Amino acid sequence: VYAAVHYPEGGALLRQAKELGITSVIIGTDGGYDPKLLEIAGDAAEGSYWVTIGWGDESSNPSIAKFKKTYKERYGEDPGVYSGLYYDATQVLAKALSAVTTFEGSSVQKALLTTEYEGPTGLTKFDKLGDVDKPFSVYRVEKSRFTPIR
After folding, report:
1. Is the pTM of this model over 0.90?
2. Which pLDDT band, with edges at 50, 70 and 90, does 56 fall under?
3. Which ranges of 1-144 would DSSP assign to H, the alpha helix?
4. Predicted confidence (pLDDT) at residue 5 exceeds the cutoff of 90
5. Is the dihedral of CA 115, 132, 94, 54 positive or negative?
6. Residue-by-residue DSSP string for 62-84
7. Which residues, in sequence order, are CB contacts of 31 under 8 Å at separation 6+?
8. Which of 17, 28, 30, 46 is the most exposed place for a label (fewest CB within 10 A)?
9. What are the φ/ψ torsions at residue 128 (nearest 5 degrees)?
10. Which pLDDT score is estimated for 6?
């Protein structure tokens, strides 16, 4: 079952699927990849898969572990997938704005297109069309944790 959901709906979907005896594998998107999904779904999340561009491999990007630790210390909970993406987007914008002499749209756009930033979600850089291409990761819920499988 493909579930393009955020964690509140995803958690409810997993819980209800288990209650109804549905044994299909559930594959969700980045909106469901959040610690709160595991709280809502409980053991019904076991065996589900979640695909996201949110985090990369901590062994090759030490800023991931640092970000997660700092976030938890500050907010008392683990960061959700969007936490890292929003953080990186803010850092990219700040870096681009520091490179412009005027805050006109075309100047900011040009600065953004040449900005590169390595953060907790990996390298952010724009192609000639203004799109960002990031690798994705696949996680399987095992023992109440998101476990990377790719």
Report:
1. no
2. low
3. 7-19, 35-41, 62-75, 81-98, 105-114
4. yes
5. negative
6. HHHHHHHHHHHHHHSSPPPHHHH
7. 4, 5, 6, 7, 10, 81
8. 46
9. -65, -20
10. 94
User: b/e per residue, 64-79, with b = 16+ CB within 10 A?
Assistant: beebbeebeeeeeeeb
pLDDT tens-place string over residues 107-121: 999 999 999 998 888
Beta-carbon count within 10 A of 52 CB: 23
Please state the φ and ψ torsions of residue 123, each to the nearest 5 degrees. Answer: -80, 130
Query: Nearest CA to 144 among 17, 39, 57, 4?
Result: 39
Bridge partner list, 147: 140
For the segment 76-100, what is each residue's pLDDT rounded down to a tens digit?
A: 988 877 888 899 999 999 999 999 9
Are residues 101 and 112 in contact, defined by beta-carbon separation less than 8 angstroms? Answer: no
Q: What is the mean pLDDT of the chain?
A: 91
> At 147, which amino acid appears?
T
Cα 36 vs. chain centroid, distance in angstroms?
A: 13
The two tokens of residue 130 are 């203004």
Sign, CA torsion 83/85/91/93: negative
